[in-house]
Amino acid sequence: MNPEPNQRQCAACQELEPPFILTVIKGNLLRRLCPDCLLKEHRNLFCPVCLDVYATVPPPQASITCLRCSSTTHLNCAPPPSPSSSSSSSSSSSDGHLFTCPPCFDPNFSFFPKSLATSSTQNEAALGMEKAKALVAAAEIAVALAKNVAEKLEEEAVRKSIEAKDAKEKAKEALVYLEDVKDIASGKTNPRKRKADDRR
Ligand SMILES: [Zn+2]
Ligand SMILES: [Zn+2]
Ligand SMILES: [Zn+2]
């Protein structure tokens, strides 16, 4: 598993220096993605409106599926059927509710900016709550995927123990990263005290 030459580049959108980069493990594939691409590629794992990562997929009666992709949104997060179409409202009751998730609805939609506003007076502490939530969601998904792989590899075979260890290591890293991200999200301004090697 050789890391890509540029460790800060997003493997999906090719953005060279995204403000954050997360490592995602799938099978034997290790990719580095910016939060936006990570979320867009794992749309089935969270609600694209409130950005809650699903512990379990919500039941069909409590969620609505995007018309274009298969992502599910909490029923109460989805906007009500557009009032502008009231002319035809009589024809459809609740199950005629057609829903397109935000990224499908707007091709320019992004969960997280590819680069943070370069206004010189701001730094990463000025991350808006919504963006912070997107970042936490992305980090949580990275953790979940890494754990998943670690578990699978562990089950798979003892001879793969090195890879399993590697994946577990990644899961741990992702978890530490998630804590950092949560600190940022909760507005703790003191920069991370954590040193690269003090949680081994
Ligand atoms: Zn990207
Ligand atoms: Zn929701
Ligand atoms: Zn969609």
Shape: globular
| Spatial strand arrangement across the major sheet | 1-2
What is the number of E strands? 4
Number of helices: 4
**Alpha carbon gyration radius:** 19 Å
Sequence of secondary-structure elements: EEHEEHHH
- Structural category is alpha+beta
Give the overall average pLDDT: 78
List the helices and strands and how they pair.
Layout: E1 22-26, E2 29-33, H1 35-41, E3 63-65, E4 72-74, H2 102-105, H3 129-156, H4 161-185
The chain binds zinc ion (3 copies).
One zinc ion binds at residues 10, 12-13, 15, 33-34, 36-37.
What does this structure look like?
GO terms for molecular function: zinc ion binding. Residues 136-170 form a coiled coil. Keywords: Coiled coil, Metal-binding, Zinc, Zinc-finger. InterPro entries: Zinc_finger_PHD-type_CS (IPR019786), Znf_RING/FYVE/PHD (IPR013083). The chain is of the alpha+beta class. The chain has two domains: 22-45 and 111-185, no CATH class; 60-101, no CATH class. The chain has helices at 35-41, 102-105, 129-156, 161-185; strands at residues 22-26, 29-33, 63-65, 72-74. The strands form two sheets. A two-stranded antiparallel ribbon has the order 1-2. Strands 3-4 form a two-stranded antiparallel sheet. It is globular, with a radius of gyration of 19 Å. Residues 85-95 and 118-124 have low confidence and may be disordered. Bound molecules: zinc ion (3 copies). Residues 66, 68-69, 71, 100-101, 104 line the site of one zinc ion (ZN). One zinc ion binds at residues 10, 12-13, 15, 33-34, 36-37.
